[in-house]
Amino acid sequence: MVWTLGAPVPEEAPLPSSPPPGPGTAGRLPGSRAAAAPRGPGRRLLDRTLARPSTAAWIGLVAVTVFFGVQAPDLLTAAGAAGVLDTAALLGIGALAVGLLLIAGHIDLSIGMVAVSSALATGLLVGEAGWGIWPALAASLAGALLVGLLNGWLVVRTGLPSFLVTLAAHLVLQGTALALTRAIAGRTVLQGLGDAPGWSSARAAFDSSVQWGDGTFRISIVWWLGLTACAGWALWRTRLGNAVFAIGGARRAARELGVPVQRTTLTLFCGTAAAGWLVGTLGLVRITTADGDPSLMPAIEFLVAAVIGGCLLTGGYGSAVGTAVGALLYGVARFGVTLAGWDPLWFQAFLGVLLLVALLANGIVRTRLRAVPLS
Amino acid sequence: MSSTQGHAPLLEMHGIVKTFPGVRALDGVDLDVRAGEVHCLLGQNGAGKSTLIKVLAGAHQPDGGRITWRGEEVTLGSPQAAMSLGIATIYQELDLVSGLTVADNIFLGREPARFGITRAAVANAAASRLLTRLGHPEIRPTAEVGSLSAAAQQMVSMARALSQDARLIVMDEPSAVLDNEEVERLFAVVRDLTASDVAVVYISHRLEEIRQIGDRITVLKDGATVATGLPTRETPTREVITLMTGRAIEYVFPERRARAASDQAPLLEVQGLSLRGSFSDVSFSVRPGEIVGLAGLVGAGRSEILETVFGARRATTGTVRVGGKRLRTGDVGGAVAAGVGLAPEERKSQALLLGDSVYRNISISSLARFARGGFLARGSERAAASEQVRSLDVRPADVDREVRTLSGGNQQKVVLARWLLRECRVLLLDEPTRGVDVGARSEIYALVRDLADRGVAVVVVSSEIPEVLGLADRVLVVADGAVVAEERADALDEHRVLDLVMEGTAHQGVPVPATTQHEGDVA
Questions:
Q1: Complex ipTM, two decimals?
Q2: I need a surface site. Which of A271, A309, B8, B128 has the fewest CB within 10 A?
Q3: In this structure, CATH architecture of domain B267-339+426-434+456-523
Q4: In Å, how far is A281's CA from the nearest CA of chain B?
């Protein structure tokens, strides 16, 4: 039986598990920590660094890079870096969008299926209807945004958990996209799209690359880094960014203070849908094939990367850079497992361990954040 | 302040009614607030203060009544509507976004921005000015709020209210997380505000504080205004307390048995029990067959004492023994195993599975008795519960009925039956007659006395002093987290208890967190 008793203790109850106050606060009353405690500037900088959302992911990234660098020295060559970055880019674009949604206290499981479905839709329009690639891409983007709007609208209107709403969207998309594709084209793998009008400009936008040493660095990396920079800046310096944090961190306050909760939520769901479309498009243009095999586009790994990057499932906490580091960590591990010659199946187990370690580390970081007042 | 006396009130609320499903939270509240005054709102937990300020903040829509703001009737249809009129609310549970900076939090929803891009420099400078005005220039506007102490976060909330250019600021127990010095600074801020004609509605349980800062008092009881516009300094504390706790009807208390078991060893021994920030150095013992009452104001630490004895809160120092055996602190399971039962104050949320049947509510603490190889023997479970229902005279005597459908008194009996079935030796009762009909109260009293006569050691907490005096054999008077007196119940009367309560508060001064006397124990 669980008893929850009484009103909250008037003081931030010092739980026995919270770390002891630092030397500067010894003997003080808990309420008086605002008074500046003497604390060396170096120590303060260290504490503040430790309290960033992405700290655990950075440490993990270094550790995993060193580990696989030893196991598979090829990882540290230009070719290795290009491979890692390419993997990280495709994942990171989705993780970024999911991360923003997580900060706002929501979740989107349908992003992977949006990627698959929008690639299939583009493929159908090009291959079966004979559209040019650009109109087809525009149409599939519109479709993806529609899915995002619907997800967001359901969440905002009904108050249903976004986990369930987007899980439903995931299933619906998976069934519909594949069944429709098979009904129309007679198969679920649409190949040979490379002859469509506008293909060369589409390749320039989504599949150009730069050779540097023996590594082929693809344009997906530019998309990823560019979007991450934009999102990071938006979180930090725009009203939208403040709204995202406020919705996830203190929804009632946000609503009462006039933060546009619904509009922001809708925007974010459209953001994940658009990110899904971009991921699908980058893949489609690269291999000139739309493949409906859902196992190629897992739903959960975007979420995993965002969480490794320090976004809290409960909302209100996280960063854009964190999602990028999480994606990079994922890329290093995935590519490292391959280069080290392990059975690729080990990667899933490794990812699970990584996720758990990241969660625990983030927990410690957050406790520290609370324990060390900065002013 | 006096310059605005006689002016039309800034805010007038008249006959405000607010009902929630099954509860009439506000039932005719009147409140008038003048510009430049500190208007204190007093009332016990559940008196309707929170609902009232939510109505005032536009978060709840009243079902009846009239609100007049600066002489014009208004509808506070949303929090933004209230805010745009100039009504700002600082809630007790701070609604700050820990991931954002101080400045972002202060201007959330109204950030200085150009094309959606926030102008951090402008916001930071303005935040800095506000925080300096609040006497906290050391809080950096760029600091992340999650990294601040509770007191500093309170200041950020306050700065947010100030930044809205409010004409009326509602402060819900603002001193709860502050220490002495910070309360003084808060008062300085409040005085500064009122000097510039801002009105403050101040909610606090600490009467001493209200005397220091307040101008007039409105007292709420059971969702209605029982007194309004009382001058803070001239109104005797006793009168205020009587208004808060006053009752209209005398209850019938069961007779005390003279033999109150003075020869037996104590069953419950509490020694030097302290909970940081709540109460300190509480010692008492209860013999089998004895009822000990804890009297004091709401917020004095009575419920916390019970909960700490029960293990629901982890004591900072001190020991609890039951039948000579020491209980591990913070271990509810251990306490229950040792035969301690708690009937908590918030019966519906903390003690009962409202949607479940009477018998399952009764048997839930004794399920091991009815388990047969991992399955529950429903028959014997129901039979045992039926026996309790009969012996406590729960009406209707139907063990399959949903607990939700019972009256307050009968729900309380179900909670008692649970602990009786568990053969509990020490019973802790927190406000046992809260929400119980007047008529049914005497029944509960008789029942409690009957339990004591069967050898149970009982501790009763109640805000109603006559209840404690009438029911208990011995009474501990609690004020500001300390026991200020312990006497036989028949040697006390209501006014003597109130004197002790106020004396205790006066000696202790404004919010002294109990542990100041034990700094060595802290850290």
A1: 0.74
A2: B8
A3: 3-Layer(aba) Sandwich (3.40)
A4: 30
